[in-house]
């Protein structure tokens, strides 16, 4: 366990993070394929992103963004460092490989052990020649109910690198599918479940799977809040409340996963602040108190990043009946 976070502007004690954390976002990426030019956040969007984060720091106390753009996704750690310095919001960068359609060709000839050595090198020495060290491994991905052979190797590499360096692993489970298989593969490679966050579970309308993942000790990422074209926030709220009612408030992570420039407030989107402006008020209206909101938005992501296990005495409402909410 290490309470020191590696951010893009240098080491930061977790105890210095006093406000909320966005557990899965993107500040610089390029996922364009074919004619889809919208899945980009470039240097040209940097000023708008900086302004959004600075505004959220002033209004809600936003303290940290976990930036999960990894290798092959257009990662720009120097750009992230400029955004962090100018917005005064700390940023943790990621490493690893996304799901198979975004894998570089040479991965097909590389073993999991070799891939893990590449990740350990970045974690220990920095990305490229920047000297900027990743503070998390992710978002490492798969699509479908079972990882492909290539995805199994990159997920195994992530687990091996995580055990060697003490970092945690955040996954991309496309449309919420395949989380149980990801967890089985990562833990089989020696990574404890409390060092794992299974991504995009708010896109999977299956509370039983969420409970099974949480019971095993993994974090459940409700990390596409506001992406109504994928899933309504009404369903997200129902799924999250069901998880809280089941006693797993200490296993939930929240974020918006801004992954296209059209999501930025400057372009008419809901932006990085949708979680605080829209979704958290809905949680309050459902009977979730401020202690539990702090658990969901600050304590949980910090415990995930640092490897602290256990509920930290914070989930006082979990397991009790929330007003107006019947468990699934």
From TrEMBL:
Cleavable signal peptide: none
Name by which UniProt lists this protein: Phosphotriesterase
MF terms in GO: hydrolase activity; zinc ion binding
PANTHER family with a match to the protein in the record: PHOSPHOTRIESTERASE-RELATED, PHOSPHOTRIESTERASE-RELATED PROTEIN
Record-annotated membrane-spanning stretches: none
Binding site for a divalent metal cation 2: 139, 172, 200
Cofactor(s) annotated in UniProt: a divalent metal cation
Keywords tagged on the record: Hydrolase, Metal-binding
Organism name: Streptomyces inhibens
Domain of life: Bacteria
Ligand binding (a divalent metal cation 1): 24, 26, 139, 257
UniProt keyword annotation of Ligase present: no
Family listed: Belongs to the metallo-dependent hydrolases superfamily. Phosphotriesterase family.
CC cofactor note: Binds 2 divalent metal cations per subunit.
